[in-house]
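Appendix B. Chain record.
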Amino acid sequence: MPEAKRIALLIDCDNVSHSAIEGVLEELAKHGTVNVRHAHGDWNSPSLGGWAEKLHPHAIRPMQQFAYTKG
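Structure tokens predicted for this chain:
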């Protein structure tokens, strides 16, 4: 039996919409097991509010990345 592939999912939440996560996880499941799920972004930013609702249900770990520049 072939060994199952292990996948790490690293999300740049400042540049990717939260509405795509279900489809992304579904597609990745076809290729292996997503063992690592990290969501990187500036969690102080109100623009990431939609992501906050998706983290816990999909076992995604938020990783704080401070915005050092504007724009």
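Further analysis of this model is presented in Appendix C.
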